[in-house]
Amino acid sequence: MSLQAPLFLLLLVVAPVAVGLYVGRERRARRGPAAFASPAMLPAVAPTRPRWRRHLPLALYLLAIITLVVALSRPQVAVSVPVDQARIILVTDQSGSMAAKDVVPTRLAAARGAAAEFLKKVPKRVQVAAVAFNQGARVIQGPTTDREAILTALSAVTPKGSTATGEALKLALKVARQASLPRRRPPPAAIVLLSDGKSVRGSDPLDAARAAAKVHVPIYTVSLGTPQGTIPKKLRNGTTGTEAVPPDPLTLHRIAALSKGQSFAVGDASRLSAVYERLGTQLTRKRVPRQITAGFAGGGLMLLLAGAGMSLFWFGRVP
């Protein structure tokens, strides 16, 4: 919770002052009868006064004052609301290492399946675009609400080549910042980057992450695969061996951190689908401030009425 006018909280100094004055008055009220009669005669001279009941209405008044002062400071809380006009760019690595079978059936096939789960969680009005990359990057589907178009574009991607993550992020950021209509501001956007290897071509992906942060486009990275992942490799003697293709979660974590996004590292298809489902829900909501002044004001008035009602019921008057 935050306050839009916190200086009004200075009025809360009234509360301890009021408590001090009330305690002083009670002490003087107890000393008064003792000055005119002995302790043995006090019950006859000064009948017993109600104990806790006479304090309760005033305690409610005090709580009401505190609550109303907080209302004056205009409190607000952040709430999560849907963002129907958002744009999400799916950036999928299609380098040769995506053919590794350490993620069943292959890394690339698992990525396609996770993308399908992701699209189920994204509201229909949210635009989604798809970028595929290896040593170069290309838009395989522009921003659209047609989910089948995205899945069809991803199904045509095959693993080959090396990795140029920086070029992919630069292209994705360009797509994210395109306005839907002339003279309109770009919609809120986010990038979801799935990669399984270290960038070895093109520009530095960390520079792209810094550029994304400047325009408030977070990058959510998913590092796919296990350190034991391998792909077939033809050797010089004509035989076939294997090449290790471990993921690079450290770089992807730095990309996410620099762009104010989040990073995930997954080693199996079920975990990848879970991450994509989570992102599908998370990226289409935003935190916005909502004032709760009326709630505090209403609570303060209710406390005042409760204190007055108790006083009238028990003592026939309102202090």
Provide a quick synopsis of the model.
With 319 residues, the chain is of the alpha/beta class. The chain has helices at 14-34, 42-45, 52-72, 107-121, 147-155, 165-176, 205-214, 249-258, 269-282, 293-315; strands at 2-3, 75-82, 87-93, 127-133, 137-144, 189-195, 219-224, 230-234, 240-244, 263-266, 285-291.
Account of the 3D structure:
- This protein is α/β, with parallel strands linked by helices.
- Helix content is 44%, strand content 21%.
- A 6-stranded mixed sheet has the order 5-4-3-6-7-10, sandwiched between helices.
- Helix 7 (205-214) runs parallel beside helix 8.
Strand content: 15-25%
Number of strands: 11
Number of helical runs?
Answer: 10
Main β sheet profile: 6 strands, mixed
Unreliably modeled segments: none
| Terminal-residue CA separation | 34 Å
Structural class: alpha/beta
Helix content: 40-55%
Order of helices and strands: EHHHEEHEEHHEHEEEHEHEH
Overall shape: it is elongated
Cα-atom Rg, whole angstroms?
33 Å
Mean pLDDT across the residues is 82
Strand order across the largest sheet: 5-4-3-6-7-10
Write the layout of secondary structure elements.
Layout: E1 2-3, H1 14-34, H2 42-45, H3 52-72, E2 75-82, E3 87-93, H4 107-121, E4 127-133, E5 137-144, H5 147-155, H6 165-176, E6 189-195, H7 205-214, E7 219-224, E8 230-234, E9 240-244, H8 249-258, E10 263-266, H9 269-282, E11 285-291, H10 293-315
Parallel strand pairs: 3-4, 3-6, 6-7, 7-10
Antiparallel strand pairs: 1-2, 2-11, 4-5, 8-9
Characteristic key phrases:
three-stranded antiparallel β-sheet, 319 residues, 10 helices, six-stranded mixed β-sheet, alpha/beta
